[in-house]
Design a protein that fits this description.
mainly beta, three-stranded antiparallel sheet, 3 strands
C-alpha cells in the first residue's frame, strides 16, 4: 500500500510524493523530513 508523503526540503520548499518501501531513503537526503500519512 502506498502512502502520500510530504517531503520538506532544506530550502523550505516541499513536495508531495508517493511512498514506496525504502524509496524515500534512496531518493532524498537524510536531511530532508518526510511526513507520511
Amino acid at each position: 500500500m502506498h502512502r502520500r508523503c510530504v517531503v520538506f526540503r532544506a530550502d523550505g520548499q516541499s513536495e508531495v510524493v508517493d511512498d514506496e518501501p525504502h524509496s524515500l531513503l534512496q531518493q532524498y537526503p537524510a536531511s530532508w523530513c518526510a511526513c507520511c500519512c
